[in-house]
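Email to the structure team, subject: Glutamate 5-kinase model.

Hi all, the expression group asked for a predicted structure before they design truncation constructs. Nothing fancy, just the tokens so they can compare against earlier work. One-line instruction: predict Glutamate 5-kinase, return tokens.
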Amino acid sequence: MTRTERLTRARRWVVKIGSALLTNNGQGLDEAAIGRWVAQMIELRRQGIELILVSSGAVAAGMRRLGWTQRPDSLSALQAAASVGQAALVQTYEEHFQRGGLHTGQILLTHEDLRKRGRYLNARGTLRTLVELGVVPIINENDTVATEEIRFGDNDTLAALVSNLVEADLLVILTDQQGLYEADPRRNPEARLLPEVVAGDPALEAMAGGAGSGISRGGMLTKVRAAGRAARSGTATLIASGHHPDVLLALREGAMLGTYFSPRLARLAARKQWLAGQLQVQGKLFLDAGAARVLREEGRSLLPVGVTRLEGNFQRGDLVACLDPEGREVARGLVNYDWQEAQQRLGRSSTEIAQRFGALDEPELVHRDNLVLSGH
Ligand SMILES: Nc1ncnc2c1ncn2[C@@H]1O[C@H](COP(=O)(O)OP(=O)(O)O)[C@@H](O)[C@H]1O
Ligand SMILES: N[C@@H](CCC(=O)OP(=O)(O)O)C(=O)O
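Reply from the structure team: attached below.
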């Protein structure tokens, strides 16, 4: 898929707005700029784009409220500033989104949350539900408990992890530069902008220097790495300047702005590669003939009703093999329940499960998004 095709067709976007942009030279939040980005995001939502926002700015907003002019070094002072500022940040977003009749939902995450499979699935479930409800999720690091992350001030990695989590089509990283240059343009004004690169190309890291302003920390290096990470879920990344007028709407129309990081693999191929790369399955699900057929032929999710028995002490989020009645592997996938919960649900219809275990239960044992047919 070309850059233009990707930009104009992308349905699920993760937009990351960095500290360098959000703050007026470290003087609190730039409310007017936030208003302009939100107006564009409201328009994107109106066009049917599923939108998830990753926003920095808590520390900067907190510093302002507390009357601090210098970013503190001590961890607890940073965390205190973030705690004060996070409230101001979401309040500002909520006010602006409300003008377009949209609500926001705050999600605070650490990298650790996304490494732990159970929490990963919970975060994904909440994000999906928010998006289905028409709410715009606004994600930031959970600075109260994060230590390394807040010191380093890196929401680029978080945005990439979120892109993997929701399998975004596009990750837009808005910053204070036009995109990735051959060298840091602050140090080398002659450096040229790179319009298109391949995500994960190791040569890019050498070009990306440290952070630019007093308040930001990550710099281009974390953005280049984030693009590589996002590509693992087939997500394309675009780094562009948040100062460009109507930048998000222009990108949606395929404008040649910023630096485009093409993911080498399409989403499904990236997922298949990841699943195929997992050597060990933690359990086995034995399907009846009907379930084996709908998985093979219709690419559907696996429901508990089609499973006759299981093997293995697997946990929620583990990789399991799905076998047909002859014992042949039909597919592999990430299971939504641990083995005991799965055992209780085997052979039961979704209605019965809802009655017995509550309507909030996920109806699928393995969702089709997390299922890859074997032998393909
Ligand atoms: N090769 C490069 N191309 C563009 N910017 C670069 C490069 N290397 C370093 N930078 C610096 O990275 C800064 C953006 O990163 P950062 O300050 O962390 O922003 P944010 O808060 O948006 O994450 C730019 O202001 C720029 O000075
Ligand atoms: N989570 C913190 C810091 C995150 C941060 O600054 O990251 P980045 O925008 O990538 O430089 C905050 O909201 O202030």
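The chain has a mean pLDDT of 89. The radius of gyration is 22 Å. Ping us if the truncation boundaries need rechecking.
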